[in-house]
Design goal:
mainly beta; Lipocalin; eight-stranded antiparallel beta barrel; two-stranded antiparallel sheet; about 15% helix
């Protein structure tokens, strides 16, 4: 009898822990407080992939891929893990003084992975696959 009780207790605890868990990159487990409400948003930190880095700090998101740079506001993430927002995207070589041409960003978060598509105005779409890699900003990838 005691063995059955111990097994039942251990099983219940395991189920409780499993259902309370969540990933820090899960859009619904990374809320920010805006006007008194919780709004799911892109997890803060450094997201990286092959020759690409996405830095999410405060209300800003910075994208770097080689000499390409992008910028957009931290987006609200829908319950299905998607977001869509306008920003800027341009090739930078040497000093620059303006934000660059407009672009549209759309993303899909699954677990700790993000697929980000950039549609520059008048250009072809570019897709990046990144995962949350830690904190801090991105190093310069343009050499």
């Amino acid at each position: 009898m005691r063995k059955a009780f111990t097994y039942a207790l251990a099983t219940s605890m395991a189920l409780l822990i499993a259902t309370c868990g969540g990933s820090p990159t899960d859009p619904t487990s990374n809320p920010i407080n805006t006007l008194g409400g919780d709004i799911p948003t892109l997890a803060a930190g450094r997201w990286s992939g092959e020759n690409v880095c996405l830095s999410v700090e405060g209300a800003d998101v910075q994208l770097q891929s080689g000499c390409w740079r992008g910028h957009f506001a931290k987006p609200t993430v829908q319950s299905n893990g998607t977001f869509s927002i306008d920003g800027t995207y341009r090739f930078e070589a040497g000093p620059t003084t303006n934000e660059g041409p407009n672009a549209h960003y759309s993303g899909k978060i699954v677990g700790n992975a993000l697929t980000l598509t950039v549609q520059p105005t008048g250009g072809s779409p570019v897709t990046y696959d990144v995962t949350l890699a830690g904190s801090g900003s991105c190093p310069s990838l343009c050499v």
